[in-house]
Automatic annotation (TrEMBL):
Annotated protein name in UniProt: Chemotaxis protein MotB
Occurrences of domain OmpA-like (ranges): 152-273
Source organism of the structure: Kineothrix alysoides
Superkingdom classification of source: Bacteria
Keywords assigned by UniProt, alphabetized: Cell membrane, Membrane, Transmembrane, Transmembrane helix
Membrane topology: Single-pass membrane protein
Region annotated Disordered, chain positions: 81-107
Keyword tRNA processing applies: no
Subcellular localization: Cell membrane
Family: Belongs to the MotB family.
Length: 291
């Protein structure tokens, strides 16, 4: 009888042992359900479109911008283009990526490639704006300091930092603000989002105001955005300011000529492809702010 009692007691202990892993499993399943439920609150279509847009940007542009220790910040939206910094934190600009059309050599091959990417109507519209800007640049005798091109991001207007800022400064030169305002008057009626990018060469800057080229390039882009908002008639909701420092060069930083080209401000009239991405990001931020 004693042996039978011991056997019964052993079976009772073994029968209760499954409760602990079972409760752990149920807790895990509950956690997974909560995560899936929370994720389902985001619109599925927007989520997939945003993921696809980011995927294309990473594959085609080779990644995003980085920070430099020089004093300017850079964000790369130009596929196939390098980036550099300014000698003392200045930013001139001039760079061309693969598959682009500039103001003087819109080859048929490049145009056909852009038709495939953007659609003929959008390319034609961007070319019309580009032609208006090129005429204005020539009339103002500033066409040597400003260039334009069309790539899959849209219409890119590049301005030498030297005509906009003093070395190591993000304050716009008042004598050249009029040039920026004339650009603003040409593009203010467009519905496209506008991205203002600051770029530098690879020479570091270390000041109390601008510890690196990230801060300098971002501050310069923000100065242009503020001018467009305050005096250019462009809605701030349609603009974004970004800085890439020296990490998106368009020329070789080993020469002074190359560094000068890398110090630049790029004003980008975003194509529908990138325009939609900006809008989706804004929608997601609005959802986050209401939750």
């Amino acid at each position: 009888m004693a042996r039978k009692g011991k056997k019964k007691h052993h079976e009772e202990e073994a029968g209760e042992a499954w409760l602990l892993p079972y409760s752990d499993l149920m807790t895990l399943l509950l956690a997974i359900f909560i995560v899936l439920f929370a994720a389902s609150k985001m619109d599925q279509g927007k989520s997939e479109a945003l993921a696809e847009a980011f995927r294309q940007n990473i594959v085609e542009d080779g990644g995003g911008g980085m920070l430099s220790n020089d004093g300017e910040s850079i964000i790369n939206l130009y596929p196939g283009t390098p980036i550099t910094e300014p000698s003392t934190g200045d930013g001139d600009s001039e760079g061309v990526g693969d598959g682009t059309m500039d103001g003087t050599s819109n080859s048929e091959g490049a145009r056909e490639a852009l038709y495939e990417l953007l659609g003929q109507q959008e390319v034609d519209n961007l070319e019309d704006v580009q032609a208006q800007l090129e005429d204005m640049f020539q009339q103002e005798n500033i066409d040597t300091s400003i260039s334009s091109r069309i790539d899959e991001r849209g219409l890119v207007i590049s301005l030498d930092n030297a005509i906009l800022f003093d070395s190591g400064s993000a304050n716009l030169k008042q004598e050249n603000e009029d040039t920026l305002l004339k650009i603003a008057s040409t593009i203010s009626s467009l519905d496209n989002y506008i991205r203002i990018e600051g770029h530098t060469d690879d020479r570091p800057i270390h000041t109390a105001v601008y510890p690196s080229n990230w801060e300098l390039s971002t501050a310069r882009a923000a100065s242009v955005v503020k001018l467009f908002r305050d005096s250019g008639g462009i809605s701030p909701a349609k603009m974004v300011a970004v800085g890439y420092a020296e990490f998106k060069p368009v020329a070789d930083n080993s020469t002074e000529e190359g560094r000068a080209k890398n110090r630049r401000i790029d004003i980008i009239i975003l194509s529908q492809r990138y325009d939609s991405l900006e809008e989706q990001i804004g929608d997601i931020q609005s959802i986050d702010n209401t939750n």
